[in-house]
Amino acid sequence: NFQELRRPEAALRYFLHFVAAKAAVTYCMPLMLAVFDICGGIVSTVAGQMGGMAGNVGTLPGEISAAIGNVGFLASIPLWLVTILGSLFITVLSFILIMTVYSRFFKLYIYTALAPVPIAAFGSGETAATGKAFLKGYVGVCLEGAVIVLSCLIFSAYMGSGSPAVPSGSAVSMVWTYVAEMIFNMLVLVGLVKGSDRIVREMMSL
C-alpha cells in the first residue's frame, strides 16, 4: 500500500521486516543448526540414561531357559512354532521401529533443505506467521527424536524391572505367555514412536 509508505514509521517497519528476512535467509543454515544442536543436546541427555538399561531388555528368564532345556523332541515341535511366530512378530515390529526412526531423519533433512523458502516469509508482516509456524514445526521435528528416545528409555526401564512376569505351566505355555507379553510391550513402544509427532504437536500447540 503506497499510501502507508508515505508515512516514515510505516516505511521503517517494512524496511526492518526486509532486513530481518534477508538476515534470516542468509544465515538460515546456522539458525537451523543452532536449533538442531539444542534439541540434539536434549536427545543426548535422555539417551545417556539408557546405557545401564540396555542389557536388561530381551533377557530370557532362567526359569524359562531351564524348562526349555528339559523339553523332549516331540514336545519341542510346538515350542519351535511358538518361537518362530514370536520371532516373526518381533522382527516385523523392529522393522517398523527402524523405518519410523529413519523417516524422522529424512523429514528433518527435508525441513532443513527447504528452510529458506518459509523463512523468507518474515519479509512481510502479513506472511510472518508462515515463518513462525515453520520454526515451531522444525523444533517439533527435532524434538520427535527426544520423544522416541524417551519412549525407548521407558520401555527399557519397564522390561528391566522384572516384566513380563514368568508364567507357570509347561514350557510351551511359558514361552507363549512370555512372547505374547513381549509383543504387547513392543506394540506399545511402536505406538509411542509412531505417535511421537502427535505428542510433540500437543506439547507445542502446533
Any key phrases for this structure?
rod-shaped, mainly alpha, 206 residues, single chain, 9 helices
* Helix and strand pattern: HHHHHHHHH
What is the mean predicted local confidence, pLDDT? Answer: 77
Largest sheet: none
- Over all CA atoms, what is the radius of gyration? 26 Å
* Molecular shape: rod-shaped
Termini separation comes to: 32 Å
Quickly count the helices: 9
Q: Helical proportion? A: over 70%
Q: What share of the residues does DSSP label as strand, in percent?
A: under 5%
Counting helices, strands and paired strands, the structural category is mainly alpha
Q: Residue ranges: pLDDT <50 for 5 or more in a row?
A: none
- According to DSSP, the number of beta strands is 0
Tell me briefly what this model is:
This protein is mainly α and 206 residues long.
Can you describe this structure?
It is a single chain. Helices cover 79% and strands 0% of the residues. The chain has nine helices and no strands. It has helices at 2-5, 8-26, 28-47, 62-69, 73-113, 116-119, 128-160, 171-194, 196-204. Helix 5 runs antiparallel to helix 7 and helix 7 packs antiparallel against helix 8. The chain is rod-shaped, with a radius of gyration of 26 Å.
Architecture blueprint of SSEs:
Blueprint: H1 2-5, H2 8-26, H3 28-47, H4 62-69, H5 73-113, H6 116-119, H7 128-160, H8 171-194, H9 196-204
Helix pairs in contact: 3-7, 5-7, 5-8, 7-8, 7-9
